[in-house]
Design goal:
This protein is of the alpha+beta class. The protein contains 17 helices and 9 strands. α8 runs antiparallel to α9 and α13 runs antiparallel to α14.
Length: 381
Amino acid sequence: MMRKKIVPMSKSAIRAEQPLLFPIYNKNGILLAEKGSLLTRSQVQKLEKLSEIFTLHRALETTIVSKYAKTEERNSIYRLPPPLERLETLEELLFEVYSTPNSSTCLSKILTLVNRLQTICEKSPDAAIAKIITDTNDNYSVKHPLHTAILCELAAGYLNWDIEEKRNIIAAALTMNLSLGMIQNKLLDQPQPLSLEQQQVIHDHPEETCKLLKKIGVQNSQWIDYVLKHHETIDGKGYPSGLTETDIPMAALLINLSDVYCAKVSGRSYREPIFANVAARDIYLEKDNTEKGTLIEVFVKTLGLYPPGCLVRLENDELAIVVSRGNRVDTPIVRVLSSNPKNPLLPKVKRNTQQNHYGIKNIVLDGSIEASLDYNEVWPT
């Protein structure tokens, strides 16, 4: 059925880091990339090595028509939305995955998520971190694995891990709670302690998720292994198997670190979110001479003490938002929001907090300022 609907297409129509206007199939009708996917250069090179690639007939007609469109119209097609907006689109796709984990299209959607997330993190790493810090706490079941995957991608890049290793880590982080579905939204707002039944569900979810991943067609052993061990800790007090350091891969430890950090800065029904610098400090205090200690050091360097998205008060009493990381973990680049706490103007002046008088005094919580901010304007690309 599928073969009758696909036709050959030119490889020159595929562009790296630009949304596909059509789906791409191999000669057997197997989907290689969904419409709208953002392919990396290496992925485009892999497609170019295939003898032939195909697309749906209707999609091809659309492409032929667009060939004769005005230049400015074609350019507008390739103009990417702001990174935070693109990350929100990924949320929607991940929601589909967690809502219908047994769907026949689930694996394809997960792989598309991995591709798109890597592209965004590569081009807009500070905006990706800001997504974590500025996000609201609704739909935690979906946002939490997305946030965790962002940190894993950035820290793994800092460590120069190879491409396939990073892809497996991201895939594992995105799917680490798949068997829980949307239950975490309920648990987040539950005022009473977890019941024994709920505790058992949480304890078993790494193993149950691995079973589910295999059921939808995941055959990658590293991906499965990272999901299985992402709650194991080097002191042997993790779950589900109580493994120790030598039995836990570094990638699983990285997922665990990212998971813990994101949980700390998100808050719960019974506590407010922890300031980003406090969350980083708490994690850093666990640093030792083990491999996890080295990983913790890299993790904190990747994020900084004041990650993009934090509202901060400077030494000169200016209120500012962190827009990018700086030369040191405690000296980011900020954009001034108000030179006077009583004057909520947006002068857009940038400060390097490493310079005199512009050091960070503290992180602040100011809902009125946050509500007036257009984050897509702060991180347009």
